[in-house]
Amino acid sequence: MVDDDLAFASSSQPLLDELKTNLAFNFNVKLFSKLTSLIGWNNTQDQDGITINQIAYIRDILHEFGMDKANGTRTPLPTKADLFPATEDETILSPSERNTYRSLIGSLLYLAVCTRPDISFSVSVLARQVHAPTKHHMGLLKRVLLYIAGTVHFGLMFPRSDKLSSRSLHSAVDVDWGGCRDTRKSTREDNRHQRQNTHMENEEAIDNSNLFCRGRV
């Protein structure tokens, strides 16, 4: 006996009906009309489209790291945050603290990949320091936790095609000049979104890529 979940979608109702009929004929399955959750994702369908988020997963992260009562902040990282490796004058975290740092990085990377691209840059750049993180790096990582604590309901919004006022893509590109003091490489940011269907906050943000994110409170 195998107990597993399966989700499927189509713009063709006859095709969906045929698939459900074939599944029910060949397997002992229990069919539901609408998908509400799957592997920790929340799924909401309304007249505007489909929204997916990971509210429960975020709350579990905040609880695990003692941040469930924390007040939120508006941006993942402060402006001009020092994201560079530890210097000789800085103290590396203890082995147990490094394990906590790595665990938190892993949890946030999963969140960023699944439903929260707005934290992807912040988490990725802090993940470069997992071999020798300092208290400063841990403080920045906790700042990301504060950000998701204030944006628990953010997620990915897939609008209905007939709700889009325009199908044209808008793009904004920014780049610093040799921003990394170690490699002298530049950091490029490229935000693409469809007009009137994107929640973005750029004020004082080092990571202002809230593309395709939608908040529901």
Polypeptide structure, described:
The protein is of the alpha+beta class and 217 residues long. The protein has one domain (56-214). It contains 5 helices and 7 strands. The chain has helices spanning 13-26, 55-64, 95-114, 120-127, 135-150, and strands at 37-38, 41-46, 49-53, 155-159, 169-175, 188-194, 213-214. The strands form 2 sheets. A 5-stranded antiparallel beta sheet has the order 1-2-3-4-7, with helices on one face. Strands 5-6 form a two-stranded antiparallel sheet. A hairpin with a 2-residue loop joins strand 1 and strand 2 (41-46). Helix 3 runs antiparallel to helix 4 (120-127). The chain is elongated, with a radius of gyration of 21 Å. The two termini are 41 Å apart. The relative contact order is 0.16. Mean pLDDT is 80; it is low at 195-217.
Overall average residue pLDDT: 80
Biggest sheet strand line-up: 1-2-3-4-7
Radius of gyration: 21 Å
Number of strands: 7
Distance between the termini: 41 Å
Poorly predicted spans: 195-217
Beta-strand percent range? 15-25%
How many separate domains make up the residues?
1
State the assembly state of the protein chains: single chain
The description of the largest β-sheet is: 5 strands, antiparallel
Task: Please bin the fraction of helical residues.
Answer: 25-40%
Secondary-structure-derived class: alpha+beta
Order of H and E elements: HEEEHHHHEEEE
Query: What is the number of helical segments per DSSP (H or I, 4+ residues)?
Result: 5
- The dominant shape is elongated
